[in-house]
Amino acid sequence: MKKCEIFSSLKVPCTSHIVVRLDGRNFSQLSRKLEFEKPYDPEFMRIMAEAASLLFQEFSPKFIFIFSDEISLLLGEIPFAGRVEKIDSVMASFLSGAFTGKIMEQDEFREKLKKTSPISFDSRVIPLSSEGVVDYFQWRQMEAWRNCLNGYSYWKLREEHSREEAMAILHKKKSSQLHDLLFQKDINLAETPAWQRRGVGIYKEKFTVQGLNPLTKEKTTTHRRKIFIDWELPLFNDEFFKTNSFI
């Protein structure tokens, strides 16, 4: 029967940069049952970031980008000899367990989780060129911005309208019209937290440690790196990815 496992030997291209994107399954339903704040719940994003940090510790990617219930990893060393099935299945199951563990730590969510389906993520492998890496993350960051604009517009309308009415009002509206709508409601998206507009990044940041050589008694300087959760990401460009040695 081993010969029936026709996808088990499928591997990622050895000359490509590899991104793994993980998406929460039925998270809109999970959000309702756990009564997350709308359009953004800081506690939910904190849990997402902590779960993604565990993913970072386990697989040492170059960079992780998070928005909504989506996590994209830019891999460094490719795990599991590049086997696509293995990467997808282990990454998704690891994140599902990490997220569940983190959210179960919160008393206000623990009882509600008993009434929900098990939390799960799907996963896909995306091979990219160096130029494609920047394009990819710019695309996902633009999607984070669209989510921010649409989310604030929808939930602000829901304060006075039904779901159907709000959807009808928003139908085919351009982004400039949505900005006007929000300004009328005294909301300026430029003043919202950066993580809502641009997402959250996780990567290793350089830091300096001052010490003393025990033999010579001379002062020493050591450069090290630690995992850093960036809640104030800039707009992505080539410089950001090259400066941080992601490409």
Automatic annotation (TrEMBL):
Signal peptide: none annotated. Residues 133-223 form the Thg1 C-terminal domain. It holds the Pfam family Thg1. GO terms for molecular function: GTP binding; magnesium ion binding; tRNA guanylyltransferase activity. Keywords: GTP-binding, Magnesium, Metal-binding, Nucleotide-binding, Nucleotidyltransferase, Transferase, tRNA processing. The keyword Manganese does not apply. Its cofactor is Mg(2+). It is an enzyme of class 2 (transferase). Residues 1-128 form the tRNAHis guanylyltransferase catalytic domain. GO terms for biological process: tRNA modification. Its EC number is 2.7.7.79. Belongs to the tRNA(His) guanylyltransferase family. This is tRNA(His) guanylyltransferase. It comes from Methanobacterium subterraneum.
